[in-house]
Amino acid sequence: MRQSNLFAPTLRETPAEAEIISHQLMLRAGMIRKSAAGVYTYLPLAQRVLRKIMTIVREEMDREDGQELALPIVQPAEIWKESGRWDVYGPEMFRLEDRHHREFCLGPTHEEIVTTIVKGDVRSYRDLPLRLYQIQNKYRDEIRPRFGLMRGREFIMKDLYSFDIDETGLEESYRAMYRAYTRVFSRCGLKFRPVEADSGAIGGNASQEFMVLAENGEALIVYCDHCDYAANIEKATSQVQVEAAGSVKELERVATPNQKTIEAVSDFLKVKPADTIKTLFYGTDSGYIAVLVRGDDQVNEIKLGNLVGGNKLYLAPPEEINQQFGLPVGFVGPVGLDAKITIYADNLVEEMHNAVVGANQEGYHLVNVEPLRDFPEVTYTNLRTVKPGEQCPHCQGRLHDARGIEVGQIFKLGTKYSKALGATFLDEQGKSQLIIMGCYGIGVSRTMAAAIEQHFDENGIKWPLAIAPFQVHVVSVSADQLPVAEDLYRQLNDAGVETLLDDRNERPGVKFKDADLIGIPVRITIGPKGLAQGEVEVKYRQTGAEERWTLAEVVTKVKEYLGSNL
Ligand code: ATP
Ligand code: MG
After folding, report:
1. What are phi and psi of 230, to 5 degrees?
2. DSSP 391
C-alpha cells in the first residue's frame, strides 16, 4: 500500500474527548472515527488489525472443532421471552418493532437464537457434540459507553456455543476453549491472565475471564503470589484470620452523639473499625433487606446480587430507610430490627465478639455485641470484597491486586437455555435428555484496544507483529530516494511482506512522526546518506533498536525477522 493513497487521517493533537491511551492513539493514528456514543467507524488501518485478530481467532476456533456460522443480528422477541431474558436484559437491549408492531432486538449475545437453531435440527446423541461460532457485531446499549472501543454499544465479538450430551462433554468443550483462548491471546502478543469469574446474568455455574493486564483496565483482579489462584474481585475469596474470642460481656447501650460513620464511631469509642459492624439496607424485588459486614469491609454487590436474585438491587439511601422504617440515619443496627427485614451477614460477622452496632436510636450505639446471642436470625454467607494482603483461599500465599481488561470469558451454562427453550436429544437408550451447553466470547474490537494499552510509548502505538496493520514501513526521506524505495517496496510485496510505502511529499519529520504514531513493527528509512553507501536504516518500533542493512539484504533480513508471521 502506498501511503499517499491510504485513508489514515492522522491528528497531531490529542482529542479532548479521549481519556485513555488506546482511544487517543486510535483517533490520532486515523484508525477510528466516532459516529455516536459507543459507535465507531473502523478506518482501513483498524480494519486490517481487526482482520488479523479475527484470522487468529478463526484458526484457533477451527483447531478445536469450532464451525463458523452466521446467526441473525435482528432477533425476534419471542425466544427472549421464552428464556426469560427479555425482561432481565433491561435497558441494555436495543429493541425495535417492525411495521406490524412485532418486537425484535439487536442481538447483545446469541444463546437464545443458537439454541433454537440447534433444537430444530439436532435429534440424537449422534448429532452431538457441536461447537458453533460466529464473529459479528453485538449491540448493547451500555449505560456508560466509554474509552473508545473498550466499551462500545456496537462492538465485534466472537461467540462460540458448545452443545454436549453430558457434563464430561461440557468439560471437554470448556477445556478446549480455555486452550484456544490461551493461544489466541498469546498469538496476539498480549500479557494476560485467566481469572475466576462471576457467571452473572448469563447463568451457569463455572466461568473464567481472560484479562489483559493494563493500568487502564476497568476490572480489578487479585492474584496469589504463591500459587496460580487469580480471580475477578467480584468473585474472589480469601482466608482471614480472626482474633480469638475475649470474655463475653453484657450488651450495653452507649451515647455516641453525632457519630454517624464507622470511622467517627470507632474513634469515639476507641475501637478498631474491624470491631464494628456496618449495617446497610438494599432495595430488592422482594422488599428491603439488611446487609451486615465488618466495619472495615465493603459489601460485594455482585455476590449479594447472586444471593438475592431478581432484577432490582440498590443501596437504599439513609433517608429512604428513615422514611420507610423510622430508623435514624447513622445509628441503625441489627439488634431488635423490624422482623420484616431479612438480614444477611458476611461470614466474618459471625466470628465477631464484643462488637459495636447502631442502636436504632438517634445518638446511641450498642457495645459488647455478640452476633449469635444478640441477633440470631441472620443468614451468613460470603458477602465481602477481599482486600490485597489477605491470605489466598488455596494456600499460604498473599493476594495482590492488579487491573485488567476483560478480553474474553468462558462459561459453563449447563441446561439453563436448553431447558428454557426445550433443546433436547435422544440418548443411546432412546430417552429424551437436555443438551448441556457452554458459551465462550472474545471481544475482538476490545482486544485491539487492549493491545494498544499494553504496547505504546509517548510517540504512538507499538503493534505486536502478529496483529500489526502492516509488517514493514518503508519511508522514503525525499522524492530523490523514491525510485529506490519503490523498488524495495515491489521486492517486499513480491516476497509476501505486508508493506506500507511512505511515498508522500512531506517533510521527513512529519513522516517519522506518523510512522511512530501508526506503529508498524519495522521501519526501513531510505535517505540520502545511507543510500550513498547502498544502505538503509532500520528501526524496530517495539524496542527502538536500530540497524543498518545493505539494499541487497533487505528482503532476506525482513523474512528472517518475520519468521512464521510471513
Ligand atoms: P463487561 O463485564 O466488560 O461488560 P461482559 O462480561 O458483559 O463484559 P460478555 O458477555 O462476557 O461481556 O462478552 C464477551 C466479551 O465481549 C467480553 O469478554 C468483552 O471482551 C467483550 N465486550 C463485552 N461488552 C463489550 C462492550 N460494550 N464493548 C466492547 N467489547 C465488549
Ligand atoms: Mg464477561
Report:
1. -150, 140
2. B
Residue 115 · residue 418 · CB < 8 Å: yes
Cα angle: 359, vertex 365, 369; to 5 degrees: 85
Check whether residue 227 and residue 293 sit in a common domain.
no
The label of the residue with cell 482466608 reads 239
Ligand 2 center–CA 409 separation, angstroms: 5
Which residue from 409, 411, 447, 453 has its CB within 8 A of the most atoms of ligand 1, so it is best to mutate?
Answer: 409
Read off the C-alpha cell for 54. Answer: 479475527
pLDDT in tens, 470-528: 999 999 999 999 999 999 999 999 999 999 999 999 999 999 999 999 999 999 999 99
Q: Can you give the residue range of the structural domain that contains 512?
A: 470-565
How much is the pTM? 0.92
Residues lying with their CB under 5 A of ligand 2, a single-atom ion: 409
Ligand 2 centroid–CA 461 distance in Å is 26
Distance from Cα 262 to the centre of ligand 2, integer Å? 34
- Do 98 and 233 share a domain, yes or no? yes
Instruction: State yes or no: cis peptide before 129, omega within 30 of 0.
Output: yes
Q: Residues enclosing ligand 1, CB less than 6 A?
A: 109, 140, 142, 151-152, 155, 157, 406-409, 441, 443, 445-446
- Span from the CA of 145 to the centroid of ligand 1 (angstroms): 12
Rounded to the nearest whole angstrom, what is the distance from the C-alpha of residue 158 to the centroid of ligand 1? 11
> Residues 438, 506: one domain?
no
What is the widest separation between alpha-carbon atoms in the chain?
A: 94
Burial (Cβ within 10 Å: 0-12, 13-18, ≥19) of residue 376: exposed
Question: 190 Cβ partners below 8 Å, 6+ apart?
Answer: 212, 407, 447, 450, 451, 454, 464
Length of the chain: 566
Q: Are residues 123 and 49 in the same domain?
A: yes
**Which ligand has the shortest distance to the CA of 201?**
1
The CATH number linked to 557 is 3.40.50.800
Convert the pLDDT of each residue in 6-26 to its tens digit: 999 999 999 998 999 999 999
What's the pLDDT at 230? 95
Between CA 477 and CA 524 the distance in angstroms is 10
